[in-house]
Hints:
Blueprint: H1 3-26, E1 34-35, E2 38-39, H2 44-56, E3 63-64, E4 68-69, H3 81-90, H4 116-127, H5 140-145
Antiparallel strand pairs: 1-2, 3-4
Helix pairs in contact: 2-4, 3-4
Amino acid sequence: MNRYKKRSGLTLAGVALLLVAGTATAQSSDHAGHAGRRFAAVDGEAIYRSICQGCHMPDAKGARGAGVYPPLTGNPRLVSPQYMAAVILHGRRDMPSFKPAAPDEDRFVLDVGLTDAQIADVINYIRTHFGNRYTDSISADDVAAMHR
């Protein structure tokens, strides 16, 4: 076998390996956690990782840049789970609302609504992680009462 054919075969094998690896990675979709107009994640950690960390960062220390995304660690406002629920339900400044949108409502994150249980779960997760040590919690019924 001449040198050109051998090198060409190795190059093709390398390209094939990259294509297979790329296809395997591509199967994981950013929208895999969405089901219709609801987010399908079932626990607070998954919701945080899929929605919240995009702005508040994986370590929950927040960010500054095109906007101000407050830290969720060491933040005195987190003492109130009801405050957190109100912000998630109704939005605040650059943060959009994550309650289900009405059919005629035009808002930034129209296709991502969280259930009352999901909102409670992500609040309870944040308040017990990232160095936060709050012992009280909020329930789905508490969240539901805030927007009835």
